Amino acid sequence: MTTCTGQSRSEKTLLWAYAILVYLFLYAPVLTVIVLSFNDSHIVGLPLQGFTTRWFLVVFTRPELVAALGNSITLGILSATIGTALATLLALAYRRPFVGNGALFYLIIAPVILPSVVVGVILLVFFGLLKVPLSLWTTALVAHVTWVLPFAFLSLYPVTHRFDRSLEEAAGDLGATRAVVFRRIVFPLIRPGIIAAWLFAFSLSFDEFIRTLFLTGFERTLPVQFWYMIVESLSPEAPAMAVVIIVISVATSLAGAMLSRRSA
Amino acid sequence: MMNRNSRSAILLASPAIAWLLIFVALPCAFMLVMSFLTTGIFGIQFKFTWLNFSRMFDTSLYGFLLFKTFRIAIVTTLLTLLAAYPVALFLSSQRGAVKNVLLLLLFLPFWIGYVVRTFAWLPILGRTGLINQILLQLHIVSEPVEWLLYNEFAVYLGLVYVYLLFMVLPIFLAVDRIEPALYEAARDLGASRWKAFTRVTLPLSKPGVLSGSIMVFLLTFGAFVTPALLGGTSGIMYSNVIATQFFADNNWSFGSALSSVMTVVVIIFLITSGRFIGLRTIFLSRVEDRR
Question: Measuring CA to CA, how many Å separate B162 from each of B105, B223, B268?
Fold first, then answer.
């Protein structure tokens, strides 16, 4: 069977070899960190000096690390919920062309297009001039919602455009009110897409770093805590903490991807 | 009828519109105003001044840094394009379950946040890192080498690593959509494999190449974590200097002015690239094509 790239056998071997190298390049650093998280050594690096799980114990018993983990999860849940709610209404609005939808689209993706440091700066200056004190639960939450909103919108846009509009029209013709149509027809159809968008938003918030660095007060999220841990002094528990972050972000993203695949 | 639809759509969109106006549009205006104020030891002085912008021309430092950041973004985009294109071809030539597994394996590392992924290079490139360990074991060097980290090379490596998927994915989606019959027809009509590739596959993958390049350029141009962790003093980029105004120098107005300049560069870049491909196409094309 030929494909549009129609390689000969030798080209195929070459492509496979190249792909293996690329996958190695992608995985080698991650695997190194995982191996080092179990390394019984006070320096982050080689040689390997025996197996230990004590760095994970450090991560789960140091109060500031546990607090950071809790902050990240709570902030992720809050911002994913607010962001996905706003994005769902927005995606539903975009099912029909409306006045100014072109211009609005640029405003929606502005937080994705602008450099992250610039987004941190505009919000910091904004809250600074308005004399709003910085805190994880106010200013950083705003930054997180603004960050996840466009992505939730972009992932919901195909969902709200996919389903059969005639179902809705039929219900309307049969006398159902708009609220009933939404509750009984539209919402059940887009629900898997909403959950997928929520998980996507959660993982984006969970991994967000620069905007949080600008806008959090004294409380730290996991990436911010991790950042100070590696730039101030490379603590030996850094790889273990990285592994905790890896597990949570990969698990939520994987769940989101599987859900959006199933709803596709 | 259209009018009523329009009104109900805007009503649905209004919470998000309000949010974006208050927390994106308005703060942008605040930043612009801030660029024309001064920050002294007594706080912000509300008096118009060009000082922040003229200061950028006092030394060649800021102009040089902007140019360097632009150069790093362009070179990274090209490197990523070269690295990604064969991967996209490879993925598109796979079938069935193998293809799905390979795609999943490609996504997986990119689900990890960039701080962790960038950090992961330290135990590879560092003094006690993997590469030095291998070189020592093989007796290629007798002392650990230091030049693997804290320079522009490490920044390029880290940036390609962090943003590769943003290039592979759009190219893959474009290549994967090409009708195989087109390529076969070219071959049947006597085109060599190379010619069929350059005349059929390559031009048809152009939207993917453009989308990926624009995304990688934007991400790299604003890079902060990679230069900060891997670049040392010689690998510093524009975002790092902006951050310094807020975290160390406490000069919000100069930091705002630098941010304004950066925003203008991004807007000019988008207007220029918009002549080849629009943002709406980049973000929504797959959906809107299907309708």
Answer: 15, 10, 25
